[in-house]
Amino acid sequence: MAGHARHPPFHLAVALLLGLASLIIPPTSRAQPPPPPVTVPVGLIIDADSPVGRIARTTIPMALDDFYAAFPNASTRVRLLQHDSGGDVVAAASAALQLMTTQGARAILGPQSSVESAFVADLATRAQVPVVSFSATSPSVSAAGARFFSRAALSDGAQAGAVAALAAYFGWRRVVPIYQDDDYGAAFVPFLADVLATAAPAAARAEVPYRCALPAGASMDAVAAALYRLESQQTRAFVVHARPALAELVFAAAADAGMMAEGYAWVITDGLTGLLGSIRPPQGVIGLAPHVPDNNTPRMRAVRRRWARAFLRDHPDADPDQAEMGCYALWAYDAAWAVASAAERLGPGEFSKSPPGLVGGDSGGPTDFSGLGKSASGEKFLAAIANTTFEGLAGRFELVDGELAVPAFRIVNIMDDARERSLGFWTPEHGLHRKMGEPNNSGLAPVIWPAESTVVPVGWVQPTSGRKLRIAMPGAVDPGYRPIMHLDVDPATNRTVAGGFVIEVFEAAVRLLPYALPFEYVLVDSMLYDSLVERVGNGEFDAAVADITITANRSQHVDFTLPYMTSGIAMVVPMRDQRSNRAWVFLKPLRYDLWLVSFVFLIFTGFVVWAVEHRVNSEFRGPPSYQIGTLLYFGFSTLYFAHREDLKSNLSRFAVVVWVFVVLILQSSYTASLTSMLTVPQLEPAIGDYASLWHGAGRVGIMNDSFMKASMTRSGFPQARLVRYRAAQDFHEALLNGTIGAIVDETPYLRLFLNTYCDNFTQTAQTNKTGGFGFAFQKGSPYVADLSRAILNLTESEEMSSIERKWFGDAEGCASPQGSQFTSDSLSFGSFWGLFLITGANSLLCCVLHLATFLVASRRRIREAASAPGVLWKDRFHMFLKLFDDKDLSSHTFRAKDRGRSANDAGASPGVAHVAAGSPLSVSNHTYDMSDWSVSAPSPAPAPAAAGEVELAAGGGHTEGEVAVAPDPEGISDRIVAGHQEGQ
Fold this sequence. Notes:
The protein is an alpha/beta fold. It is built from 32 helices and 31 strands. The chain has an 8-stranded mixed beta sheet. Helix 5 links the parallel strand 3 (107-109) and strand 4.
């Protein structure tokens, strides 16, 4: 035993060794667990019993659990500090103050309503604690007013553009908002009204004629009374923007008032579309909802299933149909994720510091607003939240200036059991389109409206219980202008009966409207139309239907429809006969160009005849002055077919025959035109145009109530020369007696005047256009667009033409041709150039043929003259002219003449012919030097006298030096000379 005691057990030795090792090994080598995450307290202020509050109680904790499940090693962990405000502003402010002071909240999620958010955002900005709201959508609170406020939801102002696009797409010109009268609802209406009034194009604009503001705690009776008032009005397109509790009362009252029937249109904003399971709107309502890009991904489907289970677990009394994630659930989920992500990015270092609290402790109490402290971590936390971006459940989470970016809105059609039916999408860039990502596919799917109607509501109607429109009409219309408009009052029934072109056009346009439009005519005293338009603009009348010209000044007071009749400023002047005032009227039948061409062809034809005849016809020979006179006389005498010269050549005869035919046509045309000018009255305007009127001194008549006086005065026309008349008969008498020289007025009035007094007057060309006749309505009246469209349809139909023919006749101006202005245009060369072409070509051809014949017949002599040495070209040309001017003794005319003369010449040889002096260029009374012809061979010896031979003898009555040549028709002399030369 003793030995065993001296040796300790083995396990005791091992224990001693381990203890010694623990003392030797440094403590830093021990394995330590990671530090616990830093807790980041974040407040949550909601109305726990409201639909949105119930959604937030389930969604936000679930979002935080999902975040830390995705990031298990996060160094920070958000801890929710939930407060129930009960929907009370003071309670929400108190809860926020408690969170920021005593509980050390580093950020606040909520508050739920916009009114609460405005108070809490102000406190948080002073304390520099970020506030992230997921349900305060009113534009009344924003980061612009409270720097530490961030909206993780879409602003209500963003969906105003989508509502305006729907109004323009369906053609609604009036939209009535039904809204909750607090910061949530009232702040949305100005945005909606502005977007509707400034939509582009102008034809797509609409107005908000009246508003229906309902208190948040309104009773069912109050809501029903408000809707009954709306039902008695004209508008049938409504936009509901309220909290779910009030919206349920609105739809129930609308169904009781019969406002969920065919012809009505209802649109709800995204705040109600996201809570369809809670409010259950009637079938046929159109809803707006934020577009969720990844709505059908596996992740989204898994989140929706888990959220539905969690919601039903947290709220056992909830309807299973309400367990659907709407926009508020998506926004709340992403807001909680963003706060957790920003806290993790900021790191535990910032949150290990002391949180903001009361300066000097918490003695100030939760209600001491001046004791709020500030921390630099608040600025960093706000910046981290603002810079956080990720793909959330509602789409990409990104804050721009403290606001969630607007990607797109879904347009849905509410069906039975609050089910959605997609109609399309709206984006700020591309407007409405059926499929997302296909902006070219514009438009929406067909809508099923209330009462299962497929007919698009027009947006408003005129109820039978509504008051009638008061249509002002000027009275005391002159009988001359009754076709334009007249208004009579039956003395027995005191009933106003209107008629005329203007009235029929207005009533026809009203019949084309898609709704009934009760109205009554109100007779007003005769006044200037400018004053009448101002009374309409002041609200004394709803509209004015008359022949009112659209001007820029009048359009400042009222809105005009499109013109139903075009108009222009023109002038009516007397006509005068110009027949007795023209001494040179005989020149007018032909224009100067035809006179000139005729003169040229007269000279040309005379020259052609002379050129052909002067070598063979003695009548065209003689001294130069005599021949020129003969040429001119012959040419001009053909105008009267009085030429007496006996033409010898067939060529000249042919040229003259064609030319006489042309002269015959010219003479006939001239006679007919001159006869018409001398016998038919030549009526012309006494004043040709406006410039002549301006520079003249005559007075001008204008209509009594017309705008012409102001217009002409502005243009600089002397006001003293303007005379105002009321009746068409007064204009007629003033023109006849010379009181005025012209009438300046609009074409419809002048047309009526000429239909009655057309015998002595005419209308000149228009000087400028006007805006035409239009109907005047009060500014902003919805009738303007609808009536303008009806006027366009009426103008394109045959009905407008029949109305115009009924009151103005089939044609403008005079109905009969008597006294109408007659004009006879002078004849020009263009009407006869073909005839001149024929006679010119014919004469030229005859002249060319004659010249060619001459050249062929005289070729030997021409050749000799051309080859003569030492002769200047001027002398050669002179010899050619002498040759062309000489008589053609071989012509049959001279041969017959010479034969007759030789037979009567006593004592002369039968073969001798005596040639008398003829052409002035012929050889006479001198000896002709034959050397001029350059004949080198000696002259042939005289041959025995015989018939046809050349006889050079003195005597026979010839003086010395004359040359007597016997006729040689057969060219015997030429053959004798040729034979003599051969003999030599």
